[in-house]
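Hi all, long-time lurker, first post. I run a small reading group and we've been trying to get comfortable going from sequence to structure in the token notation. Rather than ask abstract questions, I figured I'd post a concrete chain and ask someone more experienced to write out its structure so we can walk through it together at our next meeting. Sequence below, copied exactly:
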Amino acid sequence: MSVISGTPRITAVAINKYIRKLSEPIMVNARLLGVLKAKGRITFNHDSSDIRWRVRYKRATPTASVGYPINVTFDLPNRITTAVLPWRSYVLGEAIPKLEKLIGRNDDTAFPRLVENTVKWMMEDFQYYFQRTLYADGEGGTYDIHGLESFFGYSGLVSSSKVGNPNDTYAGLSTALGGLGGALISGYYPEGVFDPEYAAWSPIIVDWDNSAFDVGTSPTWGSNWRRAVRYGRTWLQALQGVDPDIMIMHPEMERAARDATDAIAELQVTAKSQVVDLGIKTLMFEGLEMLSDPFAPAGAVYLLTTDKMELMSMQSQLVELHKTTDPYATDTLMLDFFGNLRVDSPAFFVKLADIS
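-- Answer (accepted) --
Happy to help. Here is the structure in token form:
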């Protein structure tokens, strides 16, 4: 008895051949999304009603004990609070009407190619839009995910300091200095002395145009960026004991940084890292991976501690496809995302901005 081998209705060769005929001058690579994927910071199948986590923002203080009898005070300090973020969703729909399906129907591969190409474009469009939202401000009545700008709001400079005065709300908690309690004891933030809770939810926003970083009479980002980056890293390490692993910025900021470095030293291309292994080229500055992202806001530079951030999805994949056919034989295709971006605390992150 002869055996009839199964034949796929449409071959990958036919699809790829068709797609190669397309000219796509609009495509842009998703860099920050790629970093999160490379670092294993995208998680799936969350099912809670919201994103809720406990934050320890205060420390107990031992007291010196001298002689006998020992005098001990047993306090019940409140060292923990709760941060809460809502879930956010995005949808993208497209229809393939019956008329479009009827055209060219004598070609067995016409309709499968049509569906394949439609889904491909939808995925690219979704990714193009979604990548920009990773920098969005999800607070203040918007329905965007809580991107990086959700906690980097500021009001001028801290007096006598080189950093912006944090003035935002993230996950229901104030990022303002002293917003969770505590007090400044001496000096100024971040170089002064203060209670741990005073800046436990406050990001470091370095004013790269500050006169303290000037190396010439006409300071620019190109002339100041190395000192500003070192300052942000130094105080992130001093206050939180963490070191950022990724510096991401708008391409124009990277170009200016590279041009300004030419006369001093050449920034080396990173030979091997999780991000490079994914196909994203990066540069290396004093052990910090540096890359540009065309979706980053103009003039923005972020120092990211990636193990303190997480892109969370309620579904089994980041974006899911749903297909139905209505009574008029129109095929409807829908992509959706349900999730949010969460960081452990804004205090683990640095932004460089022109504040003055």
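A couple of things your group might point at:
Residues 110-133 form the longest helix (24 residues).
Residues 1-16 have pLDDT under 50 and may be disordered.
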